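Might I ask for a little of your time on a matter of protein folding? The record follows directly beneath this note:
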Amino acid sequence: MDERAALALLERELEGAGDDAAVVDELVITTDMLHERTDFPAGTTRYTAGWRAVAASLSDVAAMGADATAAVAAYAAPEFDREELLAFVRGASDVCERVDAEYVGGDLDGHTEFTVTTTAIGRADDPVRRSGARTGDLVCVTGTLGRSAAALELFERGARDGERSAGTDHTDVDDAGGADDAAGADALERANDLFRFEPRVAAGRALAPHATAMMDSSDGLARSLHQLAEASGCGFEIESDRVPIADALLEVATDDEDALERATTFGEDFELVATVPEAALEAVRSATDLECSVIGSVTEPRRGITLDGVALEDRGYTHGG
C-alpha cells in the first residue's frame, strides 16, 4: 500500500481526516514527520532543518485559514551534538516568530537517522476546507512555485563541487579545487536560503473570509489540484503561462518546459492553492502584500483537470520511499 492509498484508508476510518489539519472545536492541529534521507539533502544545516520542519506544519495551519499559535518538535538523531541541537531549536523558534507563533519545545530521542516530527496548533472560527470549490470560482496560488526544486538542484551542485574539490591537489591556492570549494559553499548557502520558506499564515488569514476551498502545495500543484477536485467534486482548467514560477527555478532549469514541469509536479513549495469567487479577488489581493496569481478556473467535474486543454496527470511529491 503506497502513501496515497494509506491516506485514503485513514480518511474512511477517521471522521476528522482529509484536510490539511484536523479541527477540534476551534483548534486546528496538524503533525508531520521528516527524515534526513528523504527530506534533508546533504548540506542542509540544522538551522534550516529546524525552520523547515516546523514550517511544514505551520503551512498546514495556514491552509486552513487559521492563526498559528504554537509548535513543538520531536528531534531524533544518532547522537546529540550541542551546536546542531541549538541550531535546530533556533531555526524552529525563528520561523514561529515569523508568523506570530511560539516554539514551545518537544522531545528528544536516539535514532539511526536524523528524524523530526513536528506538531503545530492554530485557531480558526471558520476553517477553510478542501471541499467547497464551486464552478466558476477562480484558482489562485500564492507566491511562486519551484523554490524547493531549485534548492535541490543547488544542494546537488554543492555536493558535486565538494567531491571535485576533495579529489584535487591543493598545492596552488588559485587552483580549481579552491574555486570548487567556493562555488560549492555558495550553492549550499543559497540552497539553504531557498529551503527556509515562510509559511503563508498571513495570506491564509486574508484568503479565509473569501476562499471556498484551500490547501497547501506541499505535494505539488498538479497533485493539489487533483486532491481539491476529489474533495470538491469539480474540475479545473489551468493556463500554463499564468503559473508563477520562481526565478531561482528559471535560473537552474534547462528550458521553460523543464521549469514548468518542475513547478507543477516537484512539490515541497508550501504555497497556498485556493478557489475564490471572482467578485472576491480584489478583496483578497488588498488584504495581503503577497502576490496571489490567478492560474485558472473551476469547471464541472466531467471536464476533468486540464493544463492548456490537455489532461493534467496526478503527479507530485510522495513521502517516503
